[in-house]
Amino acid sequence: MKSLIWLTAEEAAKNRGKVLSLYRQLLRSINSPRLQLSYASRLAKKAEVRTIFLFGSEEISKHNVTDLIRTAEYALSQLKQGKIPNNTTQY
Length: 91
Description:
This is LYR motif containing domain-containing protein. By secondary structure, the chain is an all-alpha fold. It is built from three helices and no strands. It is 65% helix and 0% strand.
């Protein structure tokens, strides 16, 4: 059975591998020497990533899950360039 708004168990299982991969890549990227962060800043950023993924794991809306994955992909691309992702949204 397909749901239009809510995430089904089957759809959640499909996203699981991608989400775990993004989570691991983000945590690894924070350790990059290209980022000019102190040890305490690195730990704080990692805690921030864990918190976002913890609350995201409870999300059941398809659109919100899609947005979370896109945001994680964007943050990862910024980290790989040696930039710290901006936490404010600009419209």
